[in-house]
Amino acid sequence: MTEPLLDVRDLRVTFLTDVGDVTAVDGVSLALGADEVLGIVGESGSGKSVTMMSVMRLIPERNTRFEGQVLYGGRDLMQLSRRKMREVRGSEIAMIFQDPMTSLNAVYTVGWQIAEQLRAHEDLSAAAARDRAIELLRSVGIPDAEQRVDDYPHHFSGGMRQRVMIAMALSCRPLVLIADEPTTALDVTIQAQILDLIRTLRRETGSSVVLITHDMGVVAELADRVLVMYGGRIVEQGPTRAIFHDPLHPYTWGLLGSIARLDRPRPHRLTAIGGSPAPAWATPSGCVFADRCPHRFERCSEPPPLVAKRGADHLDACWLPIEKRGELR
Fold first, then answer.
1. From CA 40, how far away is CA 237, in angstroms rounded?
2. Element housing 157 (H / E)
């Protein structure tokens, strides 16, 4: 097997708070291959965004403790100086943030903001950077890009602002693109356009993509592999087809059961996962999902390892006997 493009090993992120140490990411390991789309799914608070923000070194280091390795291009990003990390961030690994209105600076034009990133990483004149910004806006489907380049973020709709964020993220042709909830708060028509845009740009640029979302439909459409996170840990991972057609973990069953199926009779009510996620400062010592799992038994008081149960590339962290899971599901 070829070396992964991005290799995260046993990442732990702990916030030092007034109520004690809060571990938001607890031993996450993942690998992203070249020209691959990796989906990370889970409820809000499961640690998806914190994991990838830590990879980008965007979490303030004061009152935060980081453990583990983030290997990229033979370097451990966690050990780089701030200056070296700024050189990587944007040019080699870029991120599309969840809310473009708060991610874009309201007092600068979108063209200036794209050009600023270009000039920070490439030797371009102001005029050349502006021309490149216009090309980027045109490539992500912004009409009249020559005029819109001088508009401010509030002049754009939510979908158009997200396109601007994608243009900015792709401006330096990064090898890794992290998309954090890129379709949140957009209507379904705009969501479809954004997904088509990411798919097209991935094909044209050859970038690998990490797609963070709680929308299982988005993952099914775009991802090659899926990580399911809960309570700061990975509870299941595998190829997209395996996750959707043969899910192994009860939490994954709950996520998929909450989606209406068009190929089955209309249910009276959708399946719901009972309870609510435990706060990060009160994560159970055993299985993180045990308090909400309808199949809990005595051994769940011990933390289950993430190991292969059905095929070398399909792993889960659950003590239930594998031969009984189909019946229970």
1. 9
2. none
